[in-house]
Design goal:
Distance between the termini: 90 Å
CATH topology of the largest domain: formyl-coa transferase, domain 3
Radius of gyration: 29 Å
Strand order of the largest sheet: 5-4-3-6-2-1-7-8
């Protein structure tokens, strides 16, 4: 069957175009909030009813729309943000396509008031135009969303899911723009309300809650160093920076819902930047846990293309690697100043000066500080050595502490001790290796040969030494002093694989984790009392010792109070 080619009817074309921009009620909220921010609004109120299907009302105190331009504002491709083609290379505003208002009006009943004028449009057709309230900014209400395209309604999720999406949109903007007061109500109930005083920590408290706000670290925006800037063109707007806040390692979530990334204040989706962020937490979080973060990448608009997605969710950087490095540098600097697992005084027990952390609580949410004995002056660290009681099961140490029994995973604990030791050697450049009596040859893939060549000097600092032995082989000549000779082959394979698969400055940390894993005592090895005591002492003097470098817990505390309650003791 043949058909003639013809132009689509305007209402059909508008509905199709609207589908690219307005996918759900949260899309309407996003577009209207962006318009308000572009108008320099300092107060933005959002009222939602019926999960956004019934009505979405957004009002702001921005510069507004002139009365004589109100009708043209709803014409497709009408915008005040872009004039010439060259403007697309340096977009600094949120909206610029001129599609948002037209797309919303094509699939709903819209009433907009600004500068004493009012206009009402339904399904793309003007119904009414005249005078309106003379109020600051713009007030726009969207009613009966998707009423004229019922097929679209079938693709919406439950009311709870759509409301959650709206909260996420408003929450992200509130976190990225703490100088703007956001007030969101859902069916007349307050869902998000920020002060707009510029304090990002208060904004985090409003969105995530006060306990979360107390556990975040500020990222101080810093320019990249000259080496990192090599080949990266900068303009008069200044260097690339990353700013915002990230969570202490003791605070985590089971999903990535708490990660908000942005470029110049515009929320974006970026797998690469999420990966860069989570690389900074390697060895600090249990596997499957994720940090909370609000990070805004400040960059010259000429160096980023925001015009690659209809809904502006994604961006393209001229040099993604440099942005990757900037984010990691800023986040690592913040985490280096943290005290994720250090001991804290407990007010309820003033005679005790320092504490363990309950591993079970810490891993799942915020963590609770408990107390231990007085500082061990001989080692110069807070927290006395745990007294070993014995070894149980396939590889657990049982120890006694002032506030309870402690179960220790011997492999995970030794892994953490050795990992920190290897990182210190990497930083100092003083590797400690043991030559192999008989060098061991291994066959490796070409990618691993390349990784071996690129990282030979760094791996030597970790105590691993080798030489090329043919086009696809290496000969291992020395390993870290703690590593059993029989583990050398598997350790080199895993270490080189970690370097080949990972980029950024977290690759060497993963290599160190692999070496520590193959050097540590195994789960199931029998340790005598002296070895148990030494491992517990080393663990107590090791920073961030609650998890192994792969994120598994090293210990579990059963408090004396818990035992007392269980056995119904009164003392």
């Amino acid at each position: 069957m043949t058909t003639s080619i013809r132009l689509l009817a305007p209402e059909v074309a508008d509905a199709i175009a609207a589908g690219e921009v307005i996918e759900r009620p949260a899309s309407v909220v996003k577009e209207l909030v962006e318009n308000a921010l572009d108008s320099n609004a300092r107060r933005i109120n959002i009222a939602v009813r019926g999960a956004g299907r019934t009505s979405i009302r957004v009002s702001d105190d921005g510069s507004g729309i002139p009365a004589d331009e109100l009708s043209i504002a709803f014409v497709r491709h009408a915008t005040s943000k872009v004039v010439s083609l060259s403007d697309l290379s340096s977009i600094a505003s949120f909206g610029f396509r001129g599609e948002a208002l037209a797309s919303i009006a094509a699939v709903s009943d819209v009433e907009c008031s600004s500068a004493g004028a009012m206009i009402r449009i339904r399904a793309g057709q003007m119904l009414e135009q005249g005078s309106g309230a003379l109020l600051p900014g713009v007030t726009l209400e969207v009613r009966d969303l998707f009423a004229n395209v019922p097929a679209r309604l079938k693709f919406l999720k439950s009311d709870a899911t759509e409301v959650a999406a709206i909260k996420d949109v408003v929450g992200a903007f509130a976190l990225l723009h703490p100088h703007v007061r956001f007030h969101l109500t859902i069916d007349a109930r307050v869902a998000v309300s920020t002060t707009g005083d510029g304090d990002r920590r208060r904004a985090i408290a409003a969105v995530f809650g006060a306990p979360v706000a107390a556990e975040v670290l500020e990222i101080i925006g810093m320019p990249l160093n000259p080496h990192e800037l090599a080949g990266f063109a900068l303009s008069s707007r200044g260097p690339l920076v990353a700013s915002g806040m990230v969570s202490q390692p003791r605070l985590s979530r089971g999903s990535r819902d708490g990660i908000v990334l942005a470029v110049n204040g515009r929320p974006i989706s970026s797998r690469a930047l999420v990966y860069a962020l989570e690389e900074c937490y390697q060895g600090r979080l249990e596997r499957g846990r994720h940090p909370l973060a609000v990070i805004d990448i400040g960059i010259d608009p000429e160096l980023v293309d925001v015009n690659v997605h209809p809904a502006k969710k994604e961006v393209r950087f001229r040099d993604e690697g440099t942005v990757f490095a900037a984010l990691q540098r800023a986040v690592r600097a913040a985490l280096d100043g943290s005290e994720p697992f250090r001991y804290r005084p407990v007010e309820s027990t003033p005679a005790v000066v320092a504490g363990y952390v309950n591993a079970q609580l810490l891993i799942h949410e915020a963590g609770v500080a408990l107390a231990t004995a007085e500082p061990d002056a001989a080692r110069g660290v807070e927290g006395a050595v745990l007294r070993p009681i014995g070894q149980v099961g396939p590889g657990y140490l049982v120890a006694e502490g002032p506030h309870g029994l402690v179960l220790v995973d011997q492999h995970a604990a030794h892994e953490r001790v050795l990992y920190n030791r290897l990182l210190e050697r990497l930083r100092s450049g003083r590797g400690m290796s043991q030559p192999l009596l008989i060098p061991q040859a291994i066959d490796v893939e070409p990618a691993l040969i390349a990784a071996a060549a690129d990282h030979r000097a760094d791996l030597a600092k970790l105590g691993l030494e080798y030489e090329e032995f043919g086009p696809r082989s290496l000969r291992i000549t020395a390993v870290p002093v703690e590593m059993p000779a029989g583990s050398a082959t598997a350790a080199v394979q895993e270490t080189l694989a970690a370097l080949a698969e990972n980029r950024g400055d977290g690759a060497l940390e993963k290599a160190a984790a692999a070496l520590a894993c193959h050097s540590a005592v195994r789960f199931g090895d029998i340790l005598d009392v002296a070895e148990q005591r030494r491992l517990l002492a080393d663990l107590e003097s090791t920073e961030e010792s609650i998890t192994c470098p792969h994120g598994r817990p090293t210990r579990l505390l059963v408090e004396w109070q818990e035992l007392t309650r269980h056995f119904r003791r009164n003392y």
